[in-house]
Automatic annotation (TrEMBL):
Species per Swiss-Prot/TrEMBL record: Daphnia pulex (Water flea)
InterPro entries associated with the record: Cu-oxidase_C (IPR011706), Cu-oxidase_fam (IPR045087), Cu_oxidase_CS (IPR033138), Cu_oxidase_Cu_BS (IPR002355), Cupredoxin (IPR008972)
GO molecular function: copper ion binding; oxidoreductase activity
CDD domains: CuRO_3_tcLLC2_insect_like
Ranges of residues in domain Plastocyanin-like: 8-121
Name used for this protein in its record: Plastocyanin-like domain-containing protein
Keywords, alphabetical: Copper, Metal-binding, Oxidoreductase
Keyword Isomerase part of the UniProt annotation: no
Length: 222
């Protein structure tokens, strides 16, 4: 059964995506570390405007060519700071299909909703689920009062109603690693394309994210 998320944003596979994250600087000074799963991105612009800034100000700056993008040798990251009272612009090629989380790496902020999910591509683009991939199920706590420091993965499937994983001792970790989705590297030449060269979708999507990613409107004022 699938669920819907208010912060799920659909992106066609293969798109060039630019995201501008804005911190309006409300309430108190705080720089937010933002992390994107499934991708590395180029940090094409970053600036602190002042103690506070509005989404409309950043939009006007961009319309007037005042956001200076580095499209030649922008650094590659998967986590980046959003300066208080400023913005950070990132770009990536949407070549890795799936659901990928973008979130603040301050745990409390992530817990209260400072994040979003990128749905890259359609379900038919997603890689198949690996055989014997671990799934969620019931968990029965042990009656032991202490932690077994010599704990190992059981050699035989457990008898509870969790879908068993046929892994012997010390075999679970390699199984999980083998089942992990790949993170595709991005060519620097491809990432240096001017946004005007991209399709109208990329430009529109970039502008739409000004509002979606104003950090002060997720769940509370910062």
């Amino acid at each position: 059964k699938e669920c819907a998320c208010a912060y799920t944003l659909q992106i066609p596979l293969g798109s060039l995506v630019e995201v501008i994250l804005i911190d309006e600087g409300m309430t108190f000074d705080a720089t937010h570390p933002f992390h994107l799963h499934g991708y590395s991105f180029r940090v094409v612009a970053m600036e602190r405007i002042g103690s506070n800034v509005t989404v409309d100000q950043i939009r006007a700056m961009d319309d007037n060519g005042l956001i200076r993008r580095n499209l030649v040798d922008a650094p590659i990251k998967d986590t980046v700071a959003i300066p208080d009272g400023g913005y950070t612009a990132i770009r990536f090629l949407a070549t890795n299909p799936g659901y990928w989380l973008l979130h603040c790496h301050l745990e409390f902020h992530a817990e209260v909703g400072m994040g979003a999910i990128f749905e890259i591509g359609e379900h038919e683009d997603f890689p198949p689920i690996p055989d014997n991939f671990p799934t969620c199920g019931d968990w029965f706590p042990s009656e032991k009062k202490t932690v077994d420091v010599n704990f190992t993965v059981p050699k035989y499937p457990i008898i509870y109603d969790i879908i068993p994983i046929p892994a012997g001792e010390n075999e679970l970790l390699p199984l999980l690693i083998a089942a992990s989705p790949l993170i595709h590297p991005h060519e620097s030449r491809e990432m240096s394309h001017e946004i005007s060269v991209a399709s109208s979708f990329h430009r529109y999507y970039s502008l739409a994210l000004y509002t979606a990613y104003c950090l002060s409107i997720f769940c509370f004022h910062l």
